């Protein structure tokens, strides 16, 4: 499959992209050149750890990808409720996936981080970002069965957030890779993605 460079400059999405649990409200806004997503309430991706929650009903726009790749986006967000989130996801199955985003907190700093789920259990690594943060560049690199998660505040200087292994991943098997958005607590959250790139191969060493 060819690289995907979706800049949301056309009213239709790239033909390789499809929704898993399409959100009730989404649109390609040509004037702003972005994909605007408004997640449904009580949507999330999480498995069991800490509170026993099993949620697998978030909105995921993805392509099937094989081999090494670099997945990247820029996302703007207008959070309302705790844990409102939008970012990147790589999915092997309901029990094996990763996601990265800023998750909103009602008081204090928000949390930039990554969730990795293996064998049906999620973990969550985070770092604090200012509560007023409303934009982030995110990147996930697949190298073999391993994944490197990076973030940037301005789209130029990247910081590594996580290196992880997905246990169910197979070297030549496809995975779902793309954008996701969730509103675990309630409706009203708005996320705008200004591009989605999936480039095959590995990133040149920075």
Brief account:
The protein has strands at 4-6, 18-20, 25-29, 34-38, 45-47, 54-56, 59-65, 69-78, 85-93, 96-103, 110-118, 121-129, 135-143, 146-152, 159-165, 175-182, 190-200.
What does this structure look like?
With 206 residues, this protein is mostly beta strands. The protein contains no helices and 17 strands. The radius of gyration is 16 Å and the shape is globular.
Break the fold down into its secondary structure elements and pairings.
Elements: E1 4-6, E2 18-20, E3 25-29, E4 34-38, E5 45-47, E6 54-56, E7 59-65, E8 69-78, E9 85-93, E10 96-103, E11 110-118, E12 121-129, E13 135-143, E14 146-152, E15 159-165, E16 175-182, E17 190-200
Q: Beta-strand level of the residues, as a percent range?
A: over 45%
Distance between the termini: 26 Å
Task: Tell me the series of helices and strands, N- to C-terminal.
Answer: EEEEEEEEEEEEEEEEE
What's the helical proportion of residues? under 10%
Tell me which CATH architecture applies here: Sandwich
Shape: globular
CATH class equals: Mainly Beta
- Could you say what the CATH topology is called? Jelly Rolls
Based on helices, strands and strand pairing, what is the structural class? Answer: mainly beta
Number of distinct beta strands = 17
Poorly predicted segments: none
> In this structure, how is the largest beta sheet organized?
8 strands, antiparallel
Q: Give the mean pLDDT.
A: 96
Any key phrases for this structure?
seven-stranded antiparallel sheet, 206 residues, eight-stranded antiparallel sheet, mainly beta, Jelly Rolls
């Amino acid at each position: 499959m060819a690289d995907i460079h979706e800049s949301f400059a056309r009213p239709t999405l790239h033909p390789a992209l499809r929704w898993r649990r399409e959100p009730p409200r989404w649109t390609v806004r040509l004037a702003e050149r972005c994909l605007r997503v408004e997640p449904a309430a009580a949507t999330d991706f999480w498995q069991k750890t800490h509170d026993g929650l099993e949620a697998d009903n978030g909105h995921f726009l993805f392509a099937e990808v094989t081999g090494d790749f670099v997945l990247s986006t820029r996302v703007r967000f207008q959070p309302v409720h705790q844990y409102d989130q939008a970012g990147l996801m790589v999915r092997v199955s309901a029990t094996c996936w990763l996601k990265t985003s800023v998750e909103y907190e009602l008081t204090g700093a928000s949390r930039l981080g990554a969730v990795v789920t293996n064998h049906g259990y999620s973990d969550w690594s985070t770092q604090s970002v200012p509560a007023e943060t409303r934009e982030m560049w995110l990147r996930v690199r697949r190298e073999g069965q391993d994944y490197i998660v990076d973030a940037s505040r301005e789209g130029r200087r990247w910081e590594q957030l996580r290196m992880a292994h997905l246990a169910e991943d197979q070297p030549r098997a496809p995975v779902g890779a793309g954008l996701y958005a969730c509103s675990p607590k309630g409706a009203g959250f708005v996320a705008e993605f200004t591009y989605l790139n999936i480039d095959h191969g590995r990133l040149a060493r920075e």
